[in-house]
């Protein structure tokens, strides 16, 4: 197949979160995001979403650095020549170091277009087989433990398949003890977003008694070595998030024993192709994976659902319902969760319609990039 991209539209959106979301590195009140639309000669559109945040807290990328990378480097590469497969575009992008979220946003839009041209759901184009996916929910740090228990209750009742609680020094062992007392049987995990060091090993070890499914990213965002020293001290499996930015990072982490589980975020690893390669490697090595979240709007959520249909995504991911974060999402239908399951859409591409009226409502500015006449 040949994909001829005629033009690309970058839109800068701003969406208010229903409730502030707090992690060990800061609080989010709203989400700024870049929506990427690639349009081919027949007027078919593919959609991607940059998951970078406004500030460089989670990683060094931001909405502005993503816009810069897309405008000045990545979009020109996508428009330069026809594309025969999304992987060909990833290869073109490999000449540019890092900037994985910017790459993933455009690569994801081309994957959507590619699947639409094939007339198959994106999940199927990626090799996924599941018809439903199991999901959990991530709960931010709350003002009090009572607030946390109240919020948790809501999601447990709704049937989410596991609950993730954010922790940081001073909001950890005591909080998890109270949570366990209130919900003895709920599948539970904790995410530290790099808030600890090896010196805190005893504190992390104290979490062992609560039967957590895993502890996510306890140590530094760029570390594999200290995690490899920590893991043998704990019964709780370590899951890496921030530390895994590529297939090679995943390979090294598994070789070193830095973790037993990997959280795959499409943006963090540079796209659906790399996400799939990490998935395949983990399947070979017997390490389960799950799909993380970046407070995505509907387009990003749809991509997460598609990749989660691959076989070795055996643990519930963070792809909650649209209504968990948004008053009104940018896709129709919105992502719905029933009994902790999302039904995988079977329409071509991402399988949800982008609601252009909502997109316009949230768009602050946009820019169109045309193929140069000679290409
Ligand atoms: O570490 O997984 C994370 C949100 C913002 C930044 C980092 C993370 C998170 C979450 C929420 O845990 C994921 C989601 O619900 O989208
Ligand atoms: Mg995380």
UniProtKB/TrEMBL annotation:
Q: Does the keyword Translocase apply?
A: no
Where, in this chain's numbering, is Mg(2+) bound? 191, 216, 241
Record carries keyword Magnesium = yes
> What positions does the domain Mandelate racemase/muconate lactonizing enzyme C-terminal occupy?
145-237
**Pfam families for this protein:** MR_MLE_C (PF13378), MR_MLE_N (PF02746)
Q: Pathway of this protein?
A: Quinol/quinone metabolism; menaquinone biosynthesis; Quinol/quinone metabolism; 1,4-dihydroxy-2-naphthoate biosynthesis; 1,4-dihydroxy-2-naphthoate from chorismate: step 4/7
Q: Which InterPro entries match?
A: Enolase-like_C_sf, Enolase-like_N, Enolase_C-like, Mandelate_racemase_C, Mandelate_racemase_N_dom, MenC, OSBS/NAAAR
Q: What is its EC number?
A: 4.2.1.113
What keywords are annotated for this sequence in UniProt? Answer: Lyase, Magnesium, Menaquinone biosynthesis, Metal-binding
Q: Which cofactor does it need?
A: a divalent metal cation
Catalytic-site annotation from UniProt: 166, 265
Q: What does this protein do?
A: Converts 2-succinyl-6-hydroxy-2,4-cyclohexadiene-1-carboxylate (SHCHC) to 2-succinylbenzoate (OSB).
According to UniProt, the name of this protein is: o-succinylbenzoate synthase
Lineage summary: Bacteria, Bacillati, Bacillota, Bacilli, Bacillales
């Amino acid at each position: 197949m040949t994909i001829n991209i005629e033009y690309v539209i970058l839109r800068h959106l701003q969406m208010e979160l229903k409730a502030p979301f707090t992690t060990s590195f800061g609080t989010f009140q709203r989400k700024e995001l870049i929506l990427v639309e690639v349009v081919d000669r027949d007027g078919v559109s593919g959609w991607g979403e940059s998951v970078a945040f406004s500030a460089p807290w989670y990683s060094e990328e931001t909405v502005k650095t993503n816009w810069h990378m897309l405008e000045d480097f990545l979009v020109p590469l996508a428009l330069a020549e026809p594309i025969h497969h999304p992987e060909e575009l990833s290869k073109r992008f490999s000449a540019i170091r890092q900037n994985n979220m910017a790459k993933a946003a455009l690569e994801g839009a081309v994957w959507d277009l590619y699947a639409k041209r094939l007339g198959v759901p994106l999940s199927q184009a990626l090799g996924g087989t599941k018809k439903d996916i199991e999901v959990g929910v991530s709960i931010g740090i709350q003002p009090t433990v009572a607030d946390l228990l109240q919020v948790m209750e809501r999601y447990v009742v709704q049937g989410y398949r596991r609950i993730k609680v954010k922790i940081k020094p001073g909001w950890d062992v005591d909080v998890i003890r109270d949570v366990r007392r209130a919900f003895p049987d709920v599948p539970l995990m904790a995410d530290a977003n790099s808030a600890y060091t090896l010196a805190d090993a005893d504190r992390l070890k104290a979490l062992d008694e609560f039967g957590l499914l895993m502890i996510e990213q306890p140590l530094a965002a760029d570390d594999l070595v200290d995690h490899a020293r920590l893991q043998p001290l704990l019964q709780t499996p370590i899951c890496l998030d921030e530390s895994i930015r590529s297939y090679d990072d995943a390979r090294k982490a598994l070789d070193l024993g830095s973790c037993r589980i990997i959280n795959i975020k499409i943006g963090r690893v540079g796209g659906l192709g790399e996400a799939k390669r990490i998935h395949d490697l983990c399947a070979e090595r017997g390490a389960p994976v799950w799909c993380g979240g970046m407070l995505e709007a509907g387009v990003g959520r749809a991509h997460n659902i598609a990749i989660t249909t691959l076989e070795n995504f055996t643990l519930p991911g963070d792809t909650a319902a649209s209504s968990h974060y948004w008053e009104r999402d940018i896709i129709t239908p919105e992502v719905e969760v029933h009994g902790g399951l999302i039904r995988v859409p079977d329409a071509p591409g991402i399988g949800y319609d982008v609601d252009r009226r909502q997109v316009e409502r949230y768009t602050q500015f946009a820019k169109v990039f045309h193929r140069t006449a000679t290409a």
